[in-house]
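Tip: read the tokens left to right.
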């Protein structure tokens, strides 16, 4: 993916990722001695990456320029080790490269929320929860999620996406106590998914929209940071309940592998726990807002 406005796809994802990670790794962190030569960039030189990965400089050049993409597993491991990639970054590198044998293509999950998931959401009145697909479209939610985040029924289905709301909806954006951190995490998750499903038209359209409309997104997208799902701790400044620090749990759905259940909980007996309880009690006095009865998000 590129960072220029209006363009969401690149023919050289692998090369761009390698260049970005090489630029982010200093020679000192890589354990290289100072050779005394002036540096035009703070990161590793191509020849230094080649040295660390035990490949030729020409091979690194061809990879970064997109003139070859078919890379063996051992060479990818060597590049990942040389660049000191985190586990998510290593997985992303393997996703981008044309390794042999290739990984099986992941088929999209059914474009419906399983009835048992809808029932589960309804049985969690004290836990904000929702079902998302991998590009973070909001597919279903409970009343507690509405109280915490937003009334998703008021959001047009094509715009019902957590990352889009985080960048382009001012009220949603204001919920985050540390918006830049939350937004960067969103970009890293989106970048990881873009590597897995580069030909998803809805994902391409989402990236193009965010690239054209938000400067921060353009900057962070070009950094090629990636991250997979994990448990998070987020702090919100809620207009009704005040500050809330919540654990964000992410659960895979075996029957629908392209979907995940997200739940928000507070530490028992904490100020956030009391604030969340107050919020849900207050929400119960408001006009009823419920989840849609059928799947309405964009393109599955």
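Filled-in amino acids:
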């Amino acid at each position: 993916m590129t960072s220029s406005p209006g363009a969401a796809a690149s023919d050289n994802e692998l090369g761009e990722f390698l260049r970005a990670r090489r630029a982010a790794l200093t020679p000192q962190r890589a354990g290289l001695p100072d050779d005394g030569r002036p540096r035009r960039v703070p990161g590793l030189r191509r020849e230094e990456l080649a040295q660390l990965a035990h490949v030729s400089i020409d091979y690194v050049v061809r990879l970064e320029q997109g003139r070859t993409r078919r890379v063996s597993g051992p060479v990818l491991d060597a590049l990942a080790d040389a660049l000191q990639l985190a586990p998510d970054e290593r997985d992303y590198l393997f996703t981008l490269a044309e390794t042999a044998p290739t990984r099986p293509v992941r088929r999209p999950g059914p474009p419906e929320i399983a009835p048992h998931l809808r029932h589960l959401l309804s049985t969690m009145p004290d836990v904000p929860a929702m079902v998302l697909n991998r590009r973070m479209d909001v597919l279903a939610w409970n009343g507690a999620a509405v109280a915490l985040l937003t009334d998703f029924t008021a959001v047009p289905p094509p715009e019902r996406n957590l990352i889009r709301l985080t960048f382009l909806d001012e009220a949603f954006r204001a919920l985050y106590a540390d918006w830049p951190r939350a937004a960067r995490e969103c970009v890293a998750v989106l970048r990881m998914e873009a590597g897995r499903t580069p030909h998803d038209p809805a994902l391409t359209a989402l990236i193009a929209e965010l690239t054209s409309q938000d400067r921060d997104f353009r900057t962070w997208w070009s950094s090629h940071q990636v991250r997979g799902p994990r448990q998070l701790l987020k702090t919100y400044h809620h207009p009704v309940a005040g500050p809330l620090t919540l654990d964000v749990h992410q659960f895979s759905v075996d029957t629908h592998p392209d979907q995940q259940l997200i739940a928000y909980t507070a530490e028992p007996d904490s100020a956030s726990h009391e604030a969340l309880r107050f919020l849900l009690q207050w929400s119960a006095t408001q006009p009823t807002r419920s989840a849609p009865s059928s799947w309405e998000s964009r393109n599955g």
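The first helix runs from residue 13 to 24. Confidence is low (pLDDT under 50) at residues 1-9, 99-110, 290-300.
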